[in-house]
Design goal:
globular, 11 helices, eight-stranded mixed β-sheet, single chain, alpha/beta
């Protein structure tokens, strides 16, 4: 299984698992909470069929990557991504993030620039800034996220199941766009993740990405469903273009947070049109 080392914890290496398939222009996919690189199954197939090199990876704490006790912050996530791109000598890449992965993309571009990147896609994004503050009245109150943390600490498996139900809008799409088997597979991946990461990732959702977005010097495509219950579009995707010099928003009608799965045909068509 291919890994890159991004640091150490005690005597152990902290390793990021990745998969690298195909040839041509590289597309690097960064997944959302609480899943792994496997979440991009439908995009990987479409991109490979269209002749792209496709790289997926598991964020620290999830999938087949290491599960350290620390490093769950966006500076570290961006550093992990930078190590991966540098090790694989990826150039002219299209960076694609979903949910938490959009923070990876934004912080990477804000911190490391666009030397290795040609375009970026933010799907169901966390940016620009979720927390309600005096200069960000559109955000959500701190108490909401404190409740999430408390729920994850008290009953991690129950929290993850509830989160994924909202992730897929399972009450609407269960049995049609999301089979019970697909839901259970996602829950199994989530439950196999680090118990530390399940809690520690939640405060990272309040990271302020406004300055990162202002530094983005590549074209950006934002894709989001108008029925996103996890990251409502009015707080997130609709606001991104105001912070980026070259960005456009595509709204998926009826789309939940997990549009990469439930509305894969529309997402893949937009993705392929943008990356070419």
């Amino acid at each position: 299984m291919p890994h890159v080392s991004v640091g150490s914890e005690g005597a152990d290496s902290i390793d990021i698992h990745y998969e690298d398939h195909g040839a041509g222009t590289p597309v690097v996919l960064s997944h959302g909470y609480p899943l792994s690189g496997q979440a991009w199954e439908k995009q990987v197939a479409a991109l490979l069929a269209a002749g792209y090199r496709v790289i997926t990876y598991d964020r620290r704490g999830w999938g087949d990557s290491s599960q350290p006790a620390g490093g769950y912050d966006y500076d570290t996530f961006a550093s992990d991504l930078n190590v991966l791109l540098t090790t694989l000598d990826v150039r002219d890449a299209i960076l694609v993030g979903h949910s938490m992965g959009t923070g990876d993309v934004a912080r990477y571009l804000g911190r490391y620039g666009a030397e290795r990147v040609a375009k970026a896609v933010l799907m169901s994004p966390i940016p620009p800034f979720l927390l309600k503050t005096d200069d960000n009245p559109e955000g959500a109150p701190q108490a909401l996220f404190d409740g999430f943390i408390e729920a994850a600490r008290a009953d991690r498996n129950g929290w993850l199941k509830q989160f994924l139900q909202n992730f897929y809008n399972f009450d609407v799409y269960g049995g049609s766009l999301v089979s019970d088997e697909a839901f259970q597979a996602s829950l199994a991946v989530a439950e196999a993740g680090s118990p530390v990461a399940a809690v520690a990732c939640i405060p990272t959702w309040l990271t302020d990405f406004r300055d990162d977005l202002a530094k983005v010097a590549v074209p950006v495509l934002v894709i989001q469903g108008d029925q996103d219950r996890v990251l409502p579009i009015g707080v997130t995707g609709q606001r991104v273009p105001a912070f980026v010099g070259d960005a456009r928003l595509l709204v998926i009608e009826g789309g939940p947070h997990a549009i990469a799965w439930t509305h894969a045909d529309q997402v893949n068509a937009a993705l392929l049109d943008f990356v070419q």
